[in-house]
Specification:
alpha/beta; 281 residues; two-stranded antiparallel sheet; seven-stranded parallel β-sheet; AKR
């Protein structure tokens, strides 16, 4: 397994310098990622604390809420601090809590983009990601309005989510791709091939659900390593990802400022080669 010498920044698209420990805002919604977050003032404080602590990459989506998460980010952080990169996504219908229906209809994608621009109060979306491929719509059609938005200066960079290598290559025939956001963590490495592909290509790899520490078989190893570093299990899971590849951007989410601060301290943990290898088995 390839490993990196740990750099704590990554250049997205070769232009946007990003601190690799970012923040995922999905939890700042109601139950089932639907509706308004229960404590809106606390949610705003968490976002503000993240930026104050040096986070300059925040991940959201039109589907979170839906729509409400993007508006919350603007309410909490606009006017945005210089250098803050906000990534959003489009391409899901949300009929109810925990319901996610891919919609790659070009008109719907166009509507998602225009809505995100308004809700985030920006003229240009730094990173717009296609939330899922829609099996009912050719991706060439889905991405046509995205390419138009890039040409019009409404989107700077484009990414994909939950895709395989063939899908990345197919999308790249329509427009350049700079990032991939797939499920990946210490305990679930089903997208190993995609991670290695993005590393070789210099694309960002953004694991969603990064805090999962995996099956019970890993519990003893993690607890011993965590104790050696006076760290939590979650911090070790994040430190392993940072070490795994230098194109990984982390977006752990939380509704707690205490947990936020704890997550960010994972950047200070230096796993030994032996510890990294033990966790990687």
């Amino acid at each position: 397994m390839a490993t990196s010498t740990k750099s704590l920044t990554f250049s997205l698209g070769g232009q946007l310098e990003i601190n690799r420990l970012g923040y995922g805002a999905m939890q700042l919604t109601g139950k089932g990622v639907f509706g308004e977050v229960a404590d809106r003032e606390n949610a705003k404080k968490v976002l503000q604390a993240a930026v104050a602590a040096g986070v300059n990459f925040i991940d959201t989506a039109e589907a979170y809420g839906p729509k409400l998460n993007e508006s919350l980010i603007a309410d909490a952080l606009h006017p945005y601090k210089e250098g803050l990169v906000i990534a959003t996504k489009g391409g899901f219908n949300r009929p109810g809590p925990d319901q996610w229906v891919p919609n790659g209809n070009p008109d719907y994608i166009r509507e998602n983009i225009e809505g995100s621009l308004k809700r985030l109060k920006v003229d240009t979306i730094d990173l717009w990601q296609l939330h899922r491929f829609d099996s009912n719509v050719p991706v060439e059609e889905t991405l046509a309005p995205v390419a138009e938005a890039v040409k019009a200066g409404k989107i700077r960079y484009v990414g994909l989510s939950e895709v395989n290598v063939a899908q990345i290559e197919r999308a790249e025939k329509v427009l350049p791709i700079v990032s991939v956001q797939n499920l990946y963590n210490l305990g679930n490495r089903q997208w190993e091939e995609v991670l290695d592909y993005t590393t070789e290509r210099g694309l960002a790899f953004i694991p969603w659900f990064p805090l999962a520490s995996g099956p019970d078989t890993l519990a003893d190893k993690i607890s011993k390593i965590a104790a050696a570093h006076d760290a939590t299990t979650a911090q070790i899971a994040l430190a392993w990802l940072l070490r795994r590849a230098d194109n990984i951007l982390l977006i752990p989410g939380t509704k707690s400022i205490t947990h936020l601060e704890e997550n960010l301290k994972a950047a200070d943990i230096e796993l030994t080669d032996e510890e990294f290898d033990q966790l990687s088995k």
